[in-house]
TrEMBL record, chain B:
<feature type="transmembrane region" description="Helical">
    <location>
        <begin position="12"/>
        <end position="39"/>
    </location>
</feature>
<comment type="similarity">
    <text>Belongs to the 4-toluene sulfonate uptake permease (TSUP) (TC 2.A.102) family.</text>
</comment>
<dbReference type="InterPro" id="IPR002781">
    <property type="entry name" value="TM_pro_TauE-like"/>
</dbReference>
<feature type="transmembrane region" description="Helical">
    <location>
        <begin position="85"/>
        <end position="104"/>
    </location>
</feature>
<keyword id="KW-1003">Cell membrane</keyword>
<feature type="transmembrane region" description="Helical">
    <location>
        <begin position="110"/>
        <end position="131"/>
    </location>
</feature>
<keyword id="KW-0472">Membrane</keyword>
<dbReference type="Pfam" id="PF01925">
    <property type="entry name" value="TauE"/>
</dbReference>
<dbReference type="InterPro" id="IPR051598">
    <property type="entry name" value="TSUP/Inactive_protease-like"/>
</dbReference>
<feature type="transmembrane region" description="Helical">
    <location>
        <begin position="272"/>
        <end position="293"/>
    </location>
</feature>
<protein>
    <recommendedName>
        <fullName>Probable membrane transporter protein</fullName>
    </recommendedName>
</protein>
<feature type="transmembrane region" description="Helical">
    <location>
        <begin position="205"/>
        <end position="227"/>
    </location>
</feature>
<feature type="transmembrane region" description="Helical">
    <location>
        <begin position="239"/>
        <end position="260"/>
    </location>
</feature>
<feature type="transmembrane region" description="Helical">
    <location>
        <begin position="171"/>
        <end position="199"/>
    </location>
</feature>
<keyword id="KW-0812">Transmembrane</keyword>
<keyword id="KW-1133">Transmembrane helix</keyword>
Amino acid sequence: MMRALLVLMLFAALPAQAIEEEIVLGLSQDRVAITSTFDGDDILVFGAVKRETPIPDAEPLEVVITVSGPSKPVIVRRKEKKFGIWVNVDSVLVDSAPSFYAVATSAPFNEVLTNTEDLRYKVSIPQAIRSVGADMKVQDAQEFAQAVIRIRKAEGLYSLREDTVAVDQQTLFRTSIEMPANLIEGDYKTRIYLTRGGRVVSQIVTDIDVRKVGLERFLYNLSRQQPAIYGLMSLAIAIFAGWGASAAFTVLRNR
Amino acid sequence: MQIYLPIAEVSVNAFLLLGLGGLVGVLSGMFGVGGGFLMTPLLFFIGIPPAVAVATEANQIVASSFSGVLAHFRRRTVDFKMGGVLLAGGLTGAALGVVVFNYLKSLGQVDLLVKLCYVVFLGVVGGLMFIESLNAIRKARQAGGTAPAKRRQRGWVHALPLKMRFRTSGLYISAIPPLIVGVFVGILSAIMGVGGGFIMVPAMIYILGMPTKVVVGTSLFQIIFVTAFTTMLHATTNFTVDVVLAVLLLVGGVIGAQIGTQIGTKLKAEQLRILLAMMVLVVCGKLALDLLLQPAELFSLGTDGGH
C-alpha cells in the first residue's frame, strides 16, 4: 500500500515535459567482445531529442550519460600497524558496487543535476555504491565506501567526465565512453538522462553487452564448468611444453 | 602487444610476461633453482592478483621441472624411492596448504601470509647461503684449493624407527624425516606458489645426508608431482589457474633457462651462489619493506569469498 502510494507520488512529481521530449538513442556498438588481444574500447553514445512541440526556452537542455558494469559485493579491508608490520585488521562488506562506472555530463555535474534528482536516480558515483549492512563494529564505515571509489578511480574503473557530452542545437548529443582493458563480463547498463534546470525531463536505459569471445570464452567456461578437465589440460600443456623445450634443445646441441 | 588473461581478468603486455619468464629462466638455468620464489613476487608487482599468481606459477613450475628432470633421467641421478617418500609427504602437505590458503583467503589475510612466508624463507635461505659462500670464497683464497667436503654425521635422523634402504642415494635411514620434509615443502608449495626446491635441496643435503649429485634430480622429480597436484587443487577449488599466463611465462622460461645454463658454466660455483644469495636477499628486502613501511593506500578491495 505504502509502495503503491510512493509510486503514485513519483509519477505525480514527474514534470509534464517528460512526455514532450523523448530520446532517440544510438550506440556505435551494443556489444564489447573481449578477445585475447582486448585492450579497452571506446563506445560512441549518440542520439537525438524527439519533440512534437517547439524547444522550451526556459533552461538549456543538458545530458547525463552513465555506464555501469555488473554490481557485486566488495569486501573492503583496512590495514593497521600491528607488531611492527602492516596487517589487514578490519573489513566492511559493501553490499553492491559496480565493477565499472562512468558518468559523462554536458556541463559541470552540479549544474546538470540537483542533489535531490541525483538521490532519486542514483547518478553520481557515490550513489552507485550501496552499503546498507555496514558492520556495526566499524564506526567510520563511510570511509570504506570512499575507499572503493578512490581505488577504482585510480584503476580507471570509475570516472566522472564533466563537459564531455556535446549537445548541438538542444537536439543532438554525443559522447565517447572509454572502457578500460581490465573489464569483467556482464551487461553494462547505460542510462541517458535529459535535464533542464537540474531536473530530469526524460530518460532511457539500454544495455551494452560485454562478453569474452573465442578462446577467452572457451577457457573461462571450461575453468568454471569443468575445472578438473581444465586443470588436467593446463598440466598437459605444461608437460608438453617442458618436454618439447628439452627435446628441441637436445637436438640443437647435438648438431 | 597487450593480451587479456581470461582467468586473471587483467590485460598485460605479452612481451613483458615473455621477458619476465625469460629473465627468471636465465636465473634458474644459472643457479639450478626453479625460480618460482622470484617469479611469484614479480607477478605481484605487475598487478596479477596474488591468488592467480600463486596457482599459475605452480602450473608453470610443472613445465620447467619436467624439462629439467628429463636431463636427470638420462644421467640416472633420480632416486625414485626417496622421491616417492618425499612425494607422499608432499601431497599431504599440499592438501593441507590449500586448506590453509583458502581459510586465510576468507579471512583476508592470504596476502599477508604469502608475503610473510616469502620474507622469512627468502631471508633465512638467502642469509645462510650468503654467509656460507663468503666463507667458501675466503677458505678457497686462504688454502688456495677446494674446501674439504664435510663428512655427514650420524645424528638424530639415524635414531628414528621405520628404516628404509635408498639404493640410489646409498642411504639406510628412517622414512620419517623425508616424510616431514615432504609435508613441509608441500605446504609451502601450495601457499607460496613455489616448487620448494630452494628449501628442499638444503634439507636433503644437510638433514637427510643425500649425495649432492642425486639431490637436484630427485627434488625436481618430486616437485613435478607436488606442483601438479597443487595446480589441480587450485584449479578445482579456487578457479585461479590462468593457462594463458602460464604458457607465456613458460615459453620465456624454457628459452631463458638454456641461456642461463650457458652463462652458469662460465662462472665459479661460489660466485654463482653469492650472486643468487644477493638476489634472494634483494627480493626479500623489497617484500619486507612493503610490510614495514606505511602503504600509500591503507584500504584494499576483495571479492566476497562466500558465494
